[in-house]
User: What shape does this take?
Amino acid sequence: MEDHNQVESTEGTESGSGNLLVDLNFEETRVLGSLIEKELTTPEYYPLTLNSLVSACNQKNNRLPKSNLDEAEVSKTIEELRIKRLVHRVDLVGSRVPKFQHNAEKELDLIKAERSLVAELLNRGPQTSGELNSRAARMFEFDGLQDVEDTLQDMMERSPSLVGIMDPRPGQKEKRWFHKFGPPPKLENLDDGSSVYVPAPDQRLEKVEVIMGEFKDLKEEVEALRYQLRELSDEYRNFRKQFE
Assistant: This one.
C-alpha cells in the first residue's frame, strides 16, 4: 500500500497468516471489501473516516446484497477485523477524526490486481470472469479477459486457496468465481423467477445455537438427577424410620 506522508502514527500489524485462511462473516466482508475498493478508486479520500466507511458499505451501486449497517455495527466489525489484523486505525496530522485502512496487501499477500478482484467478490458476491473483467477495471486495468482469468487461477492455486468456482446458475452456462473468506453463498430463488446469491448464515451463530441446545439438554439432565436424588433421599429416610 502506498505510504501516507501525513500519517503521524499507525497501529502496527504483523505480516503473514500462515496456512490458515481468515474466516469472515457478512459484515466483515462488506467492511473489508469497501476499504479495498475505496483505496483503489478514490485514493485521495483514503483512509476512510467511520462515517465515510458506513456510507461506502451501504452505497447502492456495486453492492450485493444491499446493506444498511449503522455506525455501531461498523465500529464493532472494525474491531473484529483489527483482531484479525486486516484493518487498522491511522491518526493523521491535524485531524481529530480517526481513520481506517485495510491491511490486505500485507496480511493476505495481495497485489493490486488481486485486491481489485477480491474487492469485487467481497462486495458483490459470485461473478463470472467477464463480469469481473468489466467491474474491476475501475480499480485495476487488466490486459483483457485472459489476464483476469490467469490472476484468478493463481489465487485459486495458492495455499490456502483464496477463490473457487461455483456451478452455473440454473439455465445458464457460465460458472462464477467466489471468495473463500467464508462459507460459499447460497443461491436463493425469487418470486419473479430470477435467482440471487445470498450470504451463508454466520457459522458463529450456528455454533451458539448448538451450544445453547447442549446447555438445555444438560440442564434437563441435571433436573432429572436432582429429582432422582430427592426420591432416593426420601426412601432412605423411610428406611431409617423402620429402625427407630
The chain has two domains: 7-201, 203-244. The longest strand covers residues 87-92. Residues 1-17 have pLDDT under 50 and may be disordered.
